[in-house]
Amino acid sequence: MKDILREIGMIARALDSISNIEFKEFDLTKGQYLYLVRICENPGIIQEKLAEMIKVDRTTAARAIKKLEMSGFIEKKDDQQNKKINRLFPTERGANVYPHIKRENEYSNSVALEGFSEGEIETLVHLLQRVRRNVEKDWEYVKKGNKRTY
Questions:
Q1: What is the edge-to-edge ordering of all strands in the sheet holding 86-90?
Q2: Per-residue pLDDT at 66 exceeds 80
């Protein structure tokens, strides 16, 4: 069997590394840009939904959110209906950095897809979405404390 996950992992780590280096100028540390982008795209999102979107556990998300908040990129606001819930919003600083992150993402996408036809890109997107959905099932299963059988 072809080891597609190794290829996907190498691509993800390379792009993550590039982003971490390029976003240092904005004082964004390792991986924080992922959280900031999702918060900018979904203002008012709750922490649990954000963790699900990024596919990390709640503790990892809480640490990243705390750092972003302390750095002035995001702010928490109480939910109007449920005071136990905090909603996450970008600050002016976060909103100002967002276009730079989006531009880097668009550039990285164009580099990654260089030489691909529109049809190949559509096929690739469709296939990767299927892979993601398959993996999400296991992620949900394991996240609930279950063990996979190999």
A1: 45-46, 86-90, 74-78
A2: yes
